[in-house]
Specification:
alpha/beta; 3 domains; elongated; 6-stranded parallel beta sheet
């Protein structure tokens, strides 16, 4: 970058962490302040920092709270949305001996005081980026708390960790993307703080970092780009609208997914980022109601992408022999009414003995009625078979 920034290409998470650690060790960093970044969660950056004797300090209030609880973010936009004010009060009582009846305003005031000390002591700040602007070589960050701004304004070193899919053509495109992100993410016309960075501070500028690095992360995104039908998932702007609308996410919550990117869009992209074999089950955890597609501001056919992932998992032989046999039997049954109306005793036996092991863990298997609806209808209206 002509203005003094440095760009680093990282093929995977290990390479990204290695490059970041090289920068921090060279600066002899002991404390790092972090703006909210799901990409840093993707590469398990906090764990790597702690392992190398560097204290990572989350500065987003929600991220700060879940960091104190030693748990990952619950939601890609609002990481602590699963906690009540009573939960937070109990946490701050345990961590800092504050009254359990502490109010949200008092929590915010206390955290602000704690974080000011971290901002002043930190040798480096790490943030994500909402967009990378191609024509100006800039990084665009949008937020509501100003913590990301502080994370790159105070420390001498600013590191941006961002996926390669975040690039947009020009600065003028932000006129569309900033309102699109804020409206679908939090219902605002525009977020409170919108920053555009084009390198470290210049000779005539009093504030800002002395060094700036942009770590461009691939980590499986090229694999997704190769998939002509699923590549449109890379257009995601991480607004979280699909999570908020999804009945599955609303029922099981973000932590149940076990991956950084949760909800419908996470179920599409994670199998490509982390491995289809290990994470194909996410694409099957959907009702396919289509609500995610309906609310997506960038018009990704999310529920169709889930079907494409399911198809690929089957075509690549990633399903079990038992599952393939079960579906083969189901197909033969569903195509013939006589077989569909077979004995309820037989159906219940098969559910409890063949399907329970695959689908019954953590749920109660249904009990099939003695007669099917078809049989009851024919009996009621005396229709001959």
């Amino acid at each position: 970058m002509k203005r003094g920034g440095k760009v680093i290409w990282a093929q995977d998470a290990d390479e990204a962490v290695k490059e970041i650690m090289t920068i921090l060790k060279k600066a002899n960093a002991k404390i790092v302040v972090k703006g909210k970044s799901i990409t840093s969660e993707e590469i398990h950056l906090n764990e790597a920092l702690a392992k190398n004797g560097i204290e990572p300090c989350e500065t987003d209030l929600g991220e700060y709270i879940v960091q104190l609880r030693k748990e990952p973010p619950y939601h890609i936009v609002t990481p602590a949305m699963h906690l009540s004010k009573e939960d937070v009060g109990k946490l701050f009582n345990e961590q800092f001996q504050l009254p359990e009846t502490i109010t949200p305003s008092e929590v915010m005031a206390y955290v602000r005081t704690k974080l000011r000390e971290k901002y002043q002591a930190a040798e480096a700040g790490i943030t994500g980026a909402n967009f990378l602007i191609a024509d100006t070589g800039s990084v665009a960050i949008t937020e509501n708390e100003g913590n990301a701004f502080m994370s790159f304004a105070f420390p001498k070193i600013h590191i941006v960790v961002v996926g390669i899919e975040k690039i947009i053509p020009s600065l003028t495109d932000l006129d569309l993307f900033f309102p699109l992100l804020s409206t679908h993410g939090t219902g605002q016309n525009i977020t409170v703080y919108n920053s555009i960075l084009s390198g470290p501070k210049q000779a005539d500028e009093p504030d800002g970092p002395e060094e700036m690095y942009v770590v461009l992360l691939d980590n499986g995104r090229s694999n997704l780009l190769e998939q002509t039908e699923q590549r449109q998932a890379l257009a995601c702007i991480r607004c979280g609208a699909c999570l908020n609308a999804c009945p599955i996410y609303q029922t099981i919550g973000g932590h149940a997914y076990g991956v950084p990117y949760t909800g419908p869009i996470g179920s599409v992209i994670e199998p490509h980022l982390e491995g289809m074999k290990e994470f194909k089950h996410l694409s099957f955890a959907s009702s396919l109601c289509g609500k995610c597609t309906e609310v997506c501001p960038v018009k990704i056919d999310i529920h169709k992408q889930l079907l494409f992932n399911r198809r690929d998992a089957v075509n690549e032989g990633m399903t079990t022999k038992t599952e393939r046999m079960a579906y083969s039997f189901w197909k033969g049954t569903i195509l013939k009414r006589k077989k569909m109306n077979m004995s309820a005793t037989m159906k219940n036996f098969m559910l409890n003995n063949l399907f329970k092991k695959q689908w019954g863990e953590g749920r109660e298997m249904p009990k099939i009625a003695a007669k099917s609806f078809n049989e009851q209808w024919r009996e009621k209206f005396k229709i001959d078979k």
